[in-house]
Each structure stands twice: as C-alpha cells, then as structure tokens.
Amino acid sequence: MKPIQMVDLKTQYQKLKPAIDKAVIDVLESSAFINGKPVQQFAEAFSNYLGVKHVVPCANGTDALQIAMMALGLQPGDEVITPSFTYIATTEVVALLRLTPVFAEVDAKTFCLDPESVRKAITPKTRAIVPVHLYGQAANMEALMQIAEEYNLFVIEDNAQATGCDYKFTDGTVKKTGSIGTVGATSFFPSKNLGAYGDGGAVFTNDDELAAKMRLIANHGQSKRYYHDVVGCNSRLDTVQAAILNIKLPELDNYIAARRNAADYYDAAFANHPNITTPYRHANNKHVFHQYTLLLEGIDRDGLNAHLAAKQIPSMIYYPVPGHKQKMFSSFNLADVYLPVTDWLTERVISLPMHTELDEEQLSYITQSVLEYAPATAPSPKKGF
Ligand SMILES: *Cc1c(COP(=O)(O)O)cnc(C)c1O
C-alpha cells in the first residue's frame, strides 16, 4: 500500500509531470517571472470557470482577503462579521486593517456561518459579512445575501476551501461559491482544491469599479508606473505558479470528483455509526470536500488520533482553537463572546486524509482502523448539538 498522507501532492504531480515540467521550463526560458503571459491567461480561464467578470490574481489567500477589504474602503472601527470556526487568515486580516472582528455562530450541521446569528450581531457599525465555505461546503448564501441587502452590507466570500463548489438558489439558479457576494477571495496554497506549487491567491468580482480598485491596491496603488494614487501592497501571483495553475485548472472538476468519491467511501463506512457523524451535505450545494471531517461523540478524539498515528494514518484537528479564543485578539474584549456550537464543534471534529489520489486499499485501511478504535457497537449514542 502507498503511504497515507493527509494530502498526496506527489502522486498528483506525477500524473501531470510532462505538461507541468514543460510549462515551468517555458517560463524559465521566457524569463518573464513577474506578470508573464500565463498570469493573464490564468485570470481569464479562472474567470470563465467561476462565471465571474473579473479575476485579480495575487500572492496568497490571506492577501486576497486583505485586498478585498481595502478596496471596499473599510475603515478602522468598522465591524466585520465572521465565523469564529475558521482558519485564522479570515479574521487576522480584519484585525490587521484595524477593523473590528465580530464573531458569529456557525450552523451545527454545515459548520458554516449561521444567518440568524449574523443578524443578531449586526450593529450600526457593521459594514461587511465574511462567510467561509468551510471544508468545501457552501454557507447559506441565499439567507446571508438577503441579510446583506436588508442592512446594506458587503459580502466577502472566503472561498479558499471551496473552489469549484456549486451553490443552488431556491429559484434554481446555480452559481459557483465566491461569485455570489460582493467579492470572493481564494487561495492556491498547494493543498487547496486548486493548488499551485507555492503560494498564490485571487480575488474576483462582477463589479468593474471594485475590480479596478483591487488591481490598483495589489500593485502599490499604482495607476501608472511610479505614480501612486492610494496606499496599496505588493501582491502578485508569480508566472511560474500561474503556468502550473493553467495546467491544473482543467483537472479541477476531476479532482473534485475524486474527492467526492473518497468522501462517499468514508460516508458508507461510517453510516449509522452511533458515535460518528459524517459530513452533512446540504441539498443546495455540491460539497467539494477540501476536508473530510467527522464529528465524534463519546469517542476519545486524542485516543483515536494516537491509534491512527500508530498505524501510519495521519489525522488533523481543523481547528483546535476558535478565533474568539485566540490570544491574537485579546485586545478586542471577547471575554463575553459565547459561541456554544463553535465550542462544541471545536472539541469534537477530526479530519481524515482527503485528497485526489486516495485509492480503495488506503480508504479501506483507514476506515477499518477508525472502526477498530471506535466499533459501531459502542454505548452512549450521539445526541447532536
Ligand atoms: C487557506 C485559507 C486561507 C488563506 O490562504 P493562504 O493562501 O494560505 O494565505 C484563508 N481562509 C481559509 C478558510 C483558508 O482555508
């Protein structure tokens, strides 16, 4: 059996090696390392894939969120509502820009922002909502967009974990996550669903003016060389990464299918388990399984992690400390923030290996190993939140 990894980028690369090697060598030979042709080509191809008018490539997903917030003109003291149950980048940029993070609750099934909790968190200072499509499942965008419209708020979608996810509105319209809000931000970190071989990111929008501002901000606020209109930053997708992404983008839907196949295998193995809840799949979206995350009740999570590790199976906790309990935000007076669903999830989630190259032998070994530690006959059945 091939060694099991959380993410197997090496096998994935082997399958595309000739095309990727050629694309990289072409960049080296052109020596157009910054803003070479592949960057624009990728921006166009990605905007077609997403069905969005403008894609502005940048250096990473964290920058993408920052550029979006800067371009929207958010000012120090403005409140930005985000989930606490997310990767730190989402909220870190809020604090970095001296905006005020307001942590809202997530839905106990989808693990994404709960619209009712968002509604309760709105104050006269609220300017934006940042839904995160966590683990590859879409947040309830229909309800969130309604709230945003009602209160005139920007919606910045953190799509870093959900590239390729389709979201269906009740009227039947289907859109890619990240293309629904005011602006979408994503990451091409190697392990993401569409990963480069280094850092990369992008922001996207249908708003012409906002797109122009984001382009300006990502390039030192420069409209003409050495003429700087606004304070910006230096955030570019380099040509080598764009060339690699041009090879990988056409594979994205196959990659998603492979992830969903692995998820189906896991789901079947743990179906009806008295102590394990498999990922909820909301009917209005196509989960793209950036992570495959189980919810454990009545199973010692550290014990399971150690049992799997002893059998050379990695497992991870995404994320062990929610945002509202991070030291980083200690200046924000968060002591009274009470997010019981977030806390409950934080103590119970565990993610199994999930990538495009998992084969049946590996999946069988992983699921059997989990069931060895947590047999489906255990007492004290789960109750849910
Ligand atoms: C990965 C990730 C980011 C940041 O992406 P980087 O490219 O690593 O900066 C932001 N938000 C979420 C939810 C992520 O998973």
Structure, explained:
- The protein is of the alpha/beta class.
- The chain has 2 domains: 9-250, Type I PLP-dependent aspartate aminotransferase-like (Major domain) (Aspartate Aminotransferase, domain 2, 3-Layer(aba) Sandwich); 252-373, Aspartate Aminotransferase, domain 1 (Alpha-Beta Complex), CATH 3.90.1150.10.
- 38% of the residues lie in helices and 15% in strands.
- It has 12 helices and 14 strands.
- The chain has helices spanning 9-30, 37-50, 61-71, 89-96, 115-121, 141-151, 208-218, 239-248, 252-270, 301-310, 340-348, 360-373, and strands spanning 54-58, 79-83, 100-104, 126-129, 154-158, 166-168, 174-176, 183-187, 201-205, 222-224, 227-228, 276-277, 292-296, 349-352.
- A 7-stranded mixed sheet has the order 1-9-8-5-4-2-3, with helices on both faces. Strands 12-13-14 form a 3-stranded antiparallel sheet. The chain has a two-stranded antiparallel ribbon with strand order 6-7.
- Helix 1 (9-30) packs across helix 8 (239-248) and helix 2 (37-50) runs parallel beside helix 8.
- The longest helix has 22 residues, at 9-30.
- The relative contact order is 0.17.
- Pyridoxal-5'-phosphate is lined by residues 60-62, 86-87, 89-90, 132, 158, 160-161, 187, 189, 199, 201.
